[in-house]
Amino acid sequence: MSRIRILLCALLACSALTFGTLGASQAQASTGQKLYFEAPTDLLNPVTRPQALVQLQALGVRALRVELNWYSVAPDPNSAKAPSFDATNPGSYAWGQYDALLAAAHQLGWSVLLTVTSPAPSWATSNHKAPYITRPDDLDFQQFMTAVARHYGSEVSLYSIWNEPNEPPYLLPQFNANGTPASPRIYRGLFEAGYAGLSAGSKAAGLASPKVLMGETAPVGYDNPRREGAKGLLHPVAPLAFLRETLCLNAHYKRSGSCGLLPAYGYAHHAYSKAAGPNYRPPGADNVTIGVLSRLSHALDLAARAHAIRGGMPIYLTEFGVESYPSKQNGVPPAQQAEYDAIAEHIAYSNPRVAAFSQYLLKDDPLGGPFSGSALGGYVGFQTGLEYVTGKPKPLYFGFPVPLTVTKRGHGFSLWGLVRPTTRSTKVTVLVKPKGARRYRTLKTVTTNGAGYWAFNSSAKGTSWRVRWISPANVKYEGPPIRAY
After folding, report:
1. Three-state DSSP class for residue 94
2. Can you name the residues that pair with 255 across neighbouring β-strands?
3. Rounded CA separation 484/200 (Å)
4. Which terminus in the chain has less CB density within 10 A, N or C?
5. How large is the C-alpha radius of gyration of the chain?
6. Can you give the pLDDT at residue 226?
7. SS3 state at 49
């Protein structure tokens, strides 16, 4: 049996023993940048859910992002005519495997970010046509969100409204016929209605006012694609253009309408990058990948100055991943995936506005077709998982619980890392492989802070580095080789 398989089995065996008591121990975890994990295929399937939860537990996960599709739980979702029912009553909906997943997370003591999103039921859209994403009705959505809050209550710690509303596969139309953005104003109506519904539902359930994120924006798009004609109108809206239009601000972040302050708790964004790496800077000042995250921080400050949102609004990076081969679009070698993912997390950690980072997928999707970036595109699989589609672990599987970055600094190096599974300060061993050496040697044993983070500078030169950590349950975690960047 390979070293990878031995370690994988050890992680699973150890975590299975502690599965029932994890909630109590994690309650003592120190504060820090929260990590949300999203694995819909594995977690919403009752067959694969138990093992997936055990794996995530061993990897140090303590929070989940779950996308709740309105269509999938609504009554008679394919009918153009709304059925006669009380839309605010949770008993009117078929919640299915969402109930089982949220109950399991609650039992573990894990936080849940619930993103309520499209498709909508046919009867709640303006044209009643598939894929049921065209101008969803605000009042119908408000009533549904009341039911959501009444049903899930304290099982959800944070809500978010709509997944990637600046992308054509999730909301239409994106642009008006004259090339100006249409989706932001549609989204504002949905957000205000959804927030009102959640507030009413939370009050009925005897809970405090809900914390609701706005945005969930995709990283790149267009400001005005009218030069491309009708086809151009199917492109996504650039995230910062989407932000401004949602908040009724002009290009200079000045009020351009009578909109009031939007009651959002934070801004959610998907800061995916390209195969060029996390430091990639996309063209277009209104695009925001992880390498130019400060653009979003600055935009939020300007929007707060215009009294469109509250000041100091935190950023939640609620969906992120680095694609590895065999991705046809943005894949990198599997070893580099682990390096890039850690660098991206370090970038997020270094931005004081970022309250949360995330990982999208435990296991790769099957390969899909070419990506067109519009509502006319076919299925696109993501290879951002910690495992291949076969279930075989990638280097990222072992790097994820103990991420490490090594940055060149003059004649030396700056090292940063995290022991994700720990719930308190711990000691971690950092190893270096000198040039020409066959084996690693101990560079330093460092003590983390209470949230598991550590950092130090070193003048020791090497060709690669890695970290080793022994858990209190005597499980050995050893990250993959990491190069300096």
Report:
1. coil
2. 249
3. 52
4. N
5. 23
6. 73
7. helix
